[in-house]
Amino acid sequence: MSAVTRVTVFTGSSPGASPAYRAAAEEVGSAIAAAGMGVVYGGGNVGLMGAVATAASRAGGEVIGVIPTALVDKELAHEDLTRLEVVDNMHERKMRMANLGGAFVALPGGIGTLEEFFEAWTWLQLGIHDKPIALYDVGGFWRPLLEMIDRLVAEGFVAAHFRDALIVAETPEGLLAQLEAWERPTPKWEQPAASA
Fold it and tell me: What is the extent of the structural domain holding 66?
């Protein structure tokens, strides 16, 4: 069972093409706060990342932003947070976000969101952390990625139990319930040896 006190959210610094993305970001931010959990995110006040943070803050939740110095002005660092941490670079940002959160959730986003999601999921497989990873699917946004992940499983590059441990949710209630019920998969290098 997972006891999550903070959720690290990965999502776009752009709003995306559909208003549904912003609505979902706001719903997720509000729901995390209403459940008594904090939000950890990239610290910006733009796009979906800003929407998540603002919604969580308005719902009375703890919101911690982590942003590298080079992006403080470009991503317009959010002013209304519980805490904003300014770090030296992107590597420090990701490590700090990983350490502060007890779970990871990827909402719709671009290249940076994908990179953060895959790094966190890789770390789970390698046993670097034992925290749940979720994709929050808005209108089928993540379905092509899930098809690719299923192909990776079918072709022998990802173990099926890591795919099974990946949470896919379409509602805030479903997300929170799955985070609560999540069980850690056995890391890749702890697997029992195959018989010869």
Answer: 6-182
- Dump pLDDT digits (tens) for 101-157: 999 999 999 999 999 999 999 999 999 999 999 999 999 999 999 999 999 999 999
SS3 142: coil
- In the β-sheet with 104-106, what is the strand arrangement from edge to edge? 83-87, 63-68, 38-41, 6-10, 104-106, 133-136, 167-169
Average pLDDT over residues 79-92: 94
- Evaluate whether residue 95 is within a structural domain: yes
Please check whether residue 193 lies inside any domain of the structure: no
Strands of 48-112, DSSP E: 63-68, 83-87, 104-106
Q: What pLDDT shows up at residue 76?
A: 83
Domain of 29: which CATH number?
3.40.50.450
- Percent of the chain surpassing pLDDT 90: 87
Residue 188 included in any domain: no
Q: Which residues contact 132 (CB under 8 A, 6 or more apart)?
A: 2, 4, 103, 104, 165, 167, 178, 179, 182
Counting the structural domains of the chain, the total is 1
Residue 193 has pLDDT above 90, yes or no: no
